[in-house]
Fold this sequence. Notes:
Helices cover 30% and strands 20% of the residues. By secondary structure, the protein is an alpha+beta fold.
Amino acid sequence: MAAPATASPPVTRAVARQQQAALFDDLPPQALPPRRNDRAEAAALAEVLQTLRHHPAVAWVRRQNSGVARIGDRFVRFGWPGCSDILGQLIDGRLLAVECKAPKGRLQAEQAAFLDLVRRFGGVAFQARDCRDAQRWLDQHQNRQEPPADPRCDTSSASHE
Length: 161
């Protein structure tokens, strides 16, 4: 009969982090870039995202990161200028775009233009500073069934024979 195998003790999170950090010991130390967003905006984003995930009018929502990152000697852009912090879809099919801001935060011109574009084509787009803002906007737009006609298409003058 074979001897029973002894199980190795579970690796704790602290030990795992030390092992992971040891993998990068040969890299030169780099200073972390300064944070550009304040914690109030990050807290508002988390609160609004949680509210949207549980609202019955919302089919799905995702955090949309956008910006530029330096990878080696290259800069890589992800997202696009003005893209909202949160993108999603309502259960009636309309696009949902939410820009989260801290209590004193202001929309940039590109952000305001994107929200206007979404609204122009029948989507629901707004700025939220907390969960109450998100709840209020969704409750206002929940009962609207049919999105407006596409302003790019004017079918009233087309002849159908």
